Here is the input.
Amino acid sequence: MGLVTVGNAVLAERFTEHRGHLLGVAYRLTGTIADAEDAVQDAWLRLSTVDNPAEIRDLRGWLTTVVGRLCLDRLRSAAVRRERYIGPWLPEPVVTPLDGAPGENPLDVVVRDDGVRMAALVVLDRLTPEQRVAFVLHDAFGIPYAEIASTLGCTEATARQHASRGRRIAADADPPPRQALSEQQEVLGRFLAALATGDVRSVVELLHPDAVFVGDSDGKARTARHRIEGTDKISRFLIGLLRQYGVDRLGELCPVLVNGDMGMALPDVPGPRPIARRVTAFAIRDGLVVGIYDVVNPDKLTRLPE
Here is the structure.
């Protein structure tokens, strides 16, 4: 990339060209939309105060590194906050219409990236802040280890080690790759139909042997308090919910895309047995449901499309 043209208006225009990319970097690093947007805004503030922006030869790379440094600070603060979080933590879902109509939010484009599907972000959350930043910046965005080392405040060898460990954890976790949307729709349709029958065996047959159910509420709404593993336990849990709230509730589910994959949204359901607003994402492997991610924490559902 050539030298950046000096001038606030031109600089702002050039920054805007990279804003979608930077949101993708920040969201993949932090897993929250607010933190991602704050990091991108702070990156602009830092760029606007550079004495001689004409000396920045690779604006995209420079901004990516700055966003990585800002997200590292947020990840370290989040690690402390997570100690007080009630139950499992999931990334904030990015919900877009199933018809694929383009939205005004740049994240609508970001979620097309395979790396921001819910199952992949859940794996990234197992990494330390340093591992996550090193792994994502290098493997996903090609930032050199020397610059990552500067971001982390460590040697280049240590930066390589952080990325290597993050890469190994991600490989061992083996999150399912994104499947074709048509296949996801077909599997999810059969899965919901099986739930409607109330037959445990029918549901079990559509769950992958490695299936997990993860609910995120922070104690503010009702979902599973702990991670549920195993086809039988998950089946009985889901069927138990339907028996409690009524099979007719399945008809109120709205198909949506959650981080680019098939999911379901449910509005607040009032009544004697109210159900909290929620977004549920699914992961598919080998034609079976392998991951169910149920986000009911209201703090993470403030940006849902109407």
Summary: The longest helix spans residues 59-82.
